[in-house]
Write a structure and sequence with these properties.
Radius of gyration: 34 Å
Structural class: mainly alpha
Number of strands: 0
Order of helices and strands: HHH
Oligomer: single chain
Shape: elongated
Largest sheet: none
Number of helices: 3
């Protein structure tokens, strides 16, 4: 079979799955107000762990329990001023632009000297 024959059924399957996902999200209250979303989240937290445990037992998979993660160390204190860095960048860019005409003249003179030396 050619590839064109499979395009339409695959498109319909993907579209149907996407539509079903949107319908389930709407039906469970995920697309509603914040309180409806919070209620749906709480319901999912209560429902999912027993369902996952049931399926893992059925399939014979081993479920690892969550390990206690030690607390993260505090973030280091940086003495960094964004405005000072920004100002330094602006000063550097402006000084480069202010000397650009002078440097262009110097490079032009050097280029002419090089060309004259080649022509001799």
């Amino acid at each position: 079979m050619s590839a064109k024959v499979w395009v339409v059924p695959l498109f319909l399957i993907k579209g149907g799955l996407a539509g079903a996902a949107v319908y389930v999200a709407y039906d469970q209250g995920l697309l509603g107000s914040g309180t409806e979303g919070a209620e749906a989240f709480k319901k999912a937290q209560e429902t999912l762990p027993p369902a996952i445990q049931e399926w893992t037992n059925y399939l014979g998979w081993e479920v690892r329990t969550a390990q206690v993660i030690p607390a993260l160390p505090p973030t280091p204190k940086f003495d960094f001023s964004l405005s000072d860095s920004w100002n330094k960048g602006v000063h550097t860019a402006m000084s480069a632009l202010s000397v650009a005409p002078t440097r262009a003249c110097e490079y032009t003179v050097e280029g002419w000297k090089y060309v004259k030396d080649l022509v001799k």
